[in-house]
Write a structure and sequence with these properties.
With 892 residues, the chain is α/β, with parallel strands linked by helices. The protein folds into four domains: 121 residues, no CATH class; 177 residues, Rossmann fold (3-Layer(aba) Sandwich); 195 residues, Glycogen Phosphorylase B (Rossmann fold, 3-Layer(aba) Sandwich), CATH 3.40.50.2000; 262 residues, Rossmann fold (3-Layer(aba) Sandwich), CATH 3.40.50. The strands form five sheets. Strands 9, 10, 11, 12, 13, 14, 15 and 16 form an eight-stranded mixed beta sheet that branches. The protein has a seven-stranded parallel beta sheet with strand order 19-18-17-20-21-23-22, sandwiched between helices. Strand 27, helix 27 and strand 28 form a beta-alpha-beta unit. The chain is globular and about 100 Å long.
Length: 892
Amino acid sequence: MTEDAVSIPEAIMRGEGEERSSPEVPRYLYADPDLMNFGILEDGRLAACSERHQLNLAKPRPHAVHNAVEEIDHHGLKGLVMELGRGYPSRHHLFLARKVRKAGYPVYFYWPMEKVVEVIDASRWKSFFKLYVFASIFCIADMAFTSLWGAMSPPDAESSDGSSISWSRIIRQIQKKAAPLALDGIHSHHVSGTGVYLRTDYWSNITAGGSYGHTCHVARKLAERTDDFVCLMANRFELLDDFGVHQVVVEHTAPGVEPKMLAASGHFYSRLKPVLEALRPSYIYERLVPGNVAGARLSQELGIPYLVEFNGSELSMARSFGKRPLAFESLFLEAEKALFQQATAISVVSRTVREYVVSMDVDPAKIFINPNCADPEMYCPPSDEERRKIRRELGYTDSDVVIGFIGSFGGWHGIEVLAKAIPRICNQVGEARFLMIGNGNLRHLIVGAVKRSGLQDKVHFTTMLPQAEAAVIMKACDVFVSPHHRNMEDGRFFGSPTKIFEYMALGGAIVASDLGQIGEVLSPALRPSELGKPVQDAGDAVSVLCQPGNVEEFVAAVTALARSPDLRSRMGANARRAVLSEFNWDRHVGRLFDFVDALSGAMQAGDDRPSSMPNVSDEQVSVDPYKKEIQRQWDNDPCGSHYVKAVDDDETSRLEWFKGIEQYRFSEYAPWMPKTMEFENHAGEKVLEIGGGMGTDLSRFAAAGSEVVNCDLSWGHLQLTSENLSLRGLNGQFVHGDAEDLPFADEAFDLVYTNGVMHHSPNTQRLISEMHRVLRPGGRVIAMVYAESSLNYWMRLVLMYGLLRGHLSKWSIGEIMSRNAEISDVGSNPLVKVYTRRQLRAMFSCFERIGICQRQLLAEELPLPMRWMPVSLLQKLMGWNLIVKAHKPKLE
């Protein structure tokens, strides 16, 4: 969030032009990940949240705000929800959360991929602050190490047999063996057999924008023209699901740094090879990503024709708009060359890109220029009533002239031109209104210009929207602008912006820069100087083209079109006709297949393909609510059962199995536990264990003379606990129930014992209240939870899984713990939380004489430099378990 951000339009906040919400439903301010845009979320479930909960929130339409606390105060909102785009907050999220909490409002973090909300109280804020600091230090160190590594030597990769092979050698092998293969079976723009679309940029989890739309629309049309079709993706594209295109996510969670990007070839190669052997596809169509040669290797090894889409050099982008060139640039360039050499055909979006590919000694005959396109059904001109409704929702009137821009506000989008032009256009045309869709690192230039000029009521900002939503909101516009003005540092502008074709399909007037393919596609065109004539006819013109970077021409063109509705209408109609005839995705893929068919006819067919392998299953596991995951986890993976080999079903063998588990638990895993947990100190007392697992601890209480009761959410655990005690000749009561709503009378027990259950409960505070309720006055609680201040949390979960393996780039630390803290053979992800001593003292405040100790650390878990230190000492400082012991106050 910047100080230059503009306020939510009052009309939207009051609900003018849209259906009024029910006053009974609580409303919250909802912040996008970049804190540039905010919306109003209506949801009655948030007030009931206590810690971490699964909720699928309906993301509201975003608008910019200047001061979050003032917005909440002014509009009577209940609190703030901040969407996070990665696993941990930035310092801006943390500072805003502290500010809002200080004002007395609740704060929630929300991860839409996980559909999870966390309540950010003082303790959670401190935990996330520590996580932010830890991750920031790691990132700084990692960048320094990567730069040093890049200066010293290129990275290595793991081959399929596990041997270490230099990446430069792999790339040279692909270049040496390059043998483009003809694509047989194209008949009337249709391919027999199976087609595969491949995209492996695992580090770029995009949900909107030109690249996203291009992939989805091309895949959709390829699927329509192929018997069977599947997309093998590094990230899920929801628009493909909407289109009904089958996709399989081949997940990879490494950081998006150069060595990992190169090494990802090995990961995707090993996972894709059995899939392609099973499918025996007629072709692979790959959108190239930097450094990944898996597709080309598999094309060579399996004899599959290889169609390549190359939309421009990422290396050139890094030089022109990044902070520095890539450290392994030469290796990335060699990888590009290898892919081009193996390709049957190469589809590029512009003449400039074609020249770049030719410069790498690639045969020009197999390079096909195929510009971007638009979907004329998704991007279609609105009816008068539809346009009026959309405008009303945005706060515009019928007399307003709406000028639209969509994009990532990057260095090549002409943002500097827009920032200078908007105040001048608004000054010259009173009816002018601007709709700015998207995010980016230069958006602050426009936001600042708008604020300085007092134009907050004339400029409407949204974040980058999903394609379907963007296609709707863009229908409010009369004029579209594309003021690109920068060439690449090492060459000419090579882009084919999809926004241009979407503008054309919507039938609005267009003002753009005469730059590269933009000028080619948007011709014939008028020039700004021609618009000053008293009588002006559009003729065949589809746009007005300006000199790149010329603010005077840009302002003149936009103001002239704003004053000429008839000219806008005729020019827009011309542009849409061009999309219907040439620049649509159906024609795009049809042209590609025509080119490949002709090219294949001149090529000699490749070798026979390898025989089929067994079919590969593509079963997806849905995410269940947390308590169902708890049941699924321990009904199928009984706690402790992994450490001792299963035995036969006779009673003697079963008892030995239970005793073996007990032996391992108290001799090898946690020898501290019998004394600390006081199994032998409660003879004659009524003891309730919550979540008894396999009955290992409960049997110790029962053997020492306690009257024991086990309450468990897992039926599987209850059955095993009952069997365990029965085989030992011990008695007990076994109750299926929820710890957050215990099925027992008040003051029924002398001791409540729970070991490793509280941190799996969605409402831990409620569980503590229930334990307090069922305890007799003077009764005790002994409870174990996982410790945040532990070696396991920081070194294994945060460092190893979260940072070194890149999981924190996508998932929250809570999700990482759910996936990795417990052993699961069935893929369940139960809720897992960690606590500090201070948190536990606050949560157990209804008790007295609270004592907390720390335990559980194995020698093999210690880093090598620490293994000289006694584990018995270290576990008291950094063990994985915190054990709380407390008394319920006696009655006076």
